[in-house]
Amino acid sequence: MKKTCMWMSVAFVLLLISGCMGTKQQTEGNQQAGKEEKGQVQAKETKQTHQIEVAEIDKQNWIQQKEPVALPILMYHSISSGNSLRVPMSEFAAHMKWLKDNDYVTLSPEDAYQVLMTNSTPSEKCVLITFDDGYTDNYIKAFPILKQYGMKATIFMIEQSIGRLHHLTDAQMDDMMAHGISIESHTIHHLELNRLSQKQQEEELKGSKAFFDQRFSQQTIMVSYPVGRYNEDTLKLAKEAGYEMAVTTEPGHAKKEQGMMSLHRLRISPGLSPESFGRLVEGD
């Protein structure tokens, strides 16, 4: 009888110890989960704090300029490294920071058109940021930086490249457009227009405009000529297709006197320091 009581006492003690340990583990687990959840919330709040909403430009109170406007239109391609068309993410971030620190207002294609046609600006310092070809890294690497600074930009997308390897998907473009990024035409197949017949050029220019108009329920007003190649037929056909302006790869600031269908751009090459970038943008 004594042995039975003793064993019952031992079992009871062990049961109490087991229960306490289980409660402790559950409490510690709940505390850890709480910490993780709190950390996630804090991280989310921090991320939101550092993101600036893209501001709408007041189109009424613009500054009428006395001299013809020379608009810097920046030309990027891939945000990566490897050749002269690829700008590393760190350099792109430094360029955007320079623009922000120096009070530049970023424009949409519609804003840029108004600037050049009316010779007026929403700010003393304006810039149009463009990307040719629509690479995936424009979304993965450039887009977060643009959102961080609340900047607008324009991507010239090749119709037939949508969703293909290393190029933007429909979902990515939709996300970007919801945050101040414009999608404009880089033709259907990215062919050198000056090598095509008039009929082929017309198909590339009209066809891509119709596609982007329908896809994004917009009026696509801008086209970038593939590889910067064009001829006199191209200028005429681009206008007839319904574009309001077009950009080339000819170097320099964009001016109305160049012709709205043959605007110049500033090629941004890898290795450009913020200081050199600033001198290029300001035309020094």
UniProtKB/TrEMBL annotation:
Coiled coil: none annotated. Residues 26-46 are annotated as: Disordered. The keyword Signal applies. GO terms for biological process: carbohydrate metabolic process. Residues 1-23 form the signal peptide. It holds the Pfam family Polysacc_deac_1. This is Polysaccharide deacetylase. It comes from Bacillus xiamenensis. The lineage of its organism: Bacteria, Bacillati, Bacillota, Bacilli, Bacillales.
